[in-house]
């Protein structure tokens, strides 16, 4: 089915943040994956915005096997097959296209469609998805808008991965809300840093985000224990 099985979703939630990446050169994939993983970020989404993305994914899956690596910007049913062939652990789309979700369902690719309005959420739920990408998060109104939009569906178990305008500065606010399964962020590996092959800078950004995840979880645990 297109939804995430409990084990895979648990891995994603354990990661807390998902690095959303644009890669120009396939050979940059493995060192990029290692830098993120060594920094403490164990999930990434390679967007299909460049011809190198799928080959980069193949290399990451081969050389950084512990990284949970998926494919984003899936816009057509054919790209579902491409993602699976490259070894994607999951797929993500910016919108909620029924034919793409159905193709993921048929192929067995765990899939998180993008939602922006209530009708998107209802379409995704109808098609079997409960882990949804909220995009573009900040331009739409941020966490306040998401909480208002999601209110009628919370009892159905939907969770969200926000993307679009998320930064280290607002990461904690989002992660602390129970609606949020994980946070997607392109700030973790800026395109210019990838092009410079500045793996140390990316490792440092990943470590900063991973620390924020740990702090939010510690605060939750302390709150639950009182």
How does this model look, in words?
The protein is of the alpha/beta class and 226 residues long. The protein has a single domain, classed as Aldolase class I (TIM Barrel, Alpha-Beta Barrel). Helix content is 49%, strand content 14%. The protein has 11 helices and 9 strands. The protein has helices spanning 6-15, 29-39, 53-63, 77-85, 98-107, 118-126, 137-140, 142-150, 171-175, 191-196, 199-224; strands at residues 17-21, 43-47, 68-72, 91-92, 111-112, 114-115, 131-134, 159-162, 183-185. The strands form 3 sheets. A 4-stranded parallel beta sheet has the order 3-2-1-9, sandwiched between helices. Helix 2 links the parallel strand 1 (17-21) and strand 2 (43-47). The mean pLDDT is 96.
